[in-house]
Amino acid sequence: MSILIRSVLLRDAEKIAVIIRDMGWFENLQSESLRKTAERVRRHISLCLSDNSHSILVAEDESNMIVGYCSVHFLPYLFLTGPEGYISELFISANVRGQGIGSALLEQIKKEAKKRGCSRLSLINSRTRESYRRGFYERIGWKERTEVAVFVLPLM
C-alpha cells in the first residue's frame, strides 16, 4: 500500500470524522450525526491552522482515502531548552493498522519537531489500547514514563 503523508486541509474534516467515529471510543459521538461531528472537526482544524503552534498530518492511500491522522501541539515549557511536541491524537483506520501508517505519521512529526527545535515529543496512550498492548511505541523508540500520573479535570 502506497501512503502519502501530508498536511491536513479543511476539506478533510468529514473523512477524519469518520475515522474518529469508527474508533467507537467516544460515547458522545454515538448520539450525534456524522454531519455534526464533521462540523466540529472542521472548526478544530481551522483553529489549528490559524497559527503555527499546531500541526495535523493525514495519511492518504492511492484512492485518496484518509486512513489515519496525527495531531500535535507545540508547547513552550520554561524549564525545557525547546518546546515540547504533544501528540494529542494518532488514529489509524482499523482495516489498515499494522501496515506502518502510524510509524510514518510519527516519523514526519518527529522531523517537524526537530526543525522547530523541540526538546521532546510526548503522548498519552491507554494501557488498554491495542497499540500499548503490542508495544508499538516502545518498538519505535519511545519510553514510558512510569514516575508521573496523568490527571484530568473534566470541564464539560
In short:
With 156 residues, this protein is an alpha+beta fold. Helices cover 35% and strands 22% of the residues.
Keywords:
156 residues; Aminopeptidase; five-stranded mixed sheet; 5 strands; 35% helix
Can you offer a commentary on this structure?
This protein has 156 residues and is of the alpha+beta class. Helix content is 35%, strand content 22%. Strands 1-2-3-4-5 form a five-stranded mixed β-sheet, sandwiched between helices. Helix 4 links the parallel strand 4 (84-92) and strand 5 (120-123). The radius of gyration is 16 Å and the shape is globular. The mean pLDDT is 92.
Secondary structure layout plus pairing:
Blueprint: E1 4-7, H1 13-23, H2 27-30, H3 34-49, E2 54-60, E3 66-75, E4 84-92, H4 101-115, E5 120-123, H5 130-133, H6 136-139
Parallel strand pairs: 4-5
Antiparallel strand pairs: 1-2, 2-3, 3-4
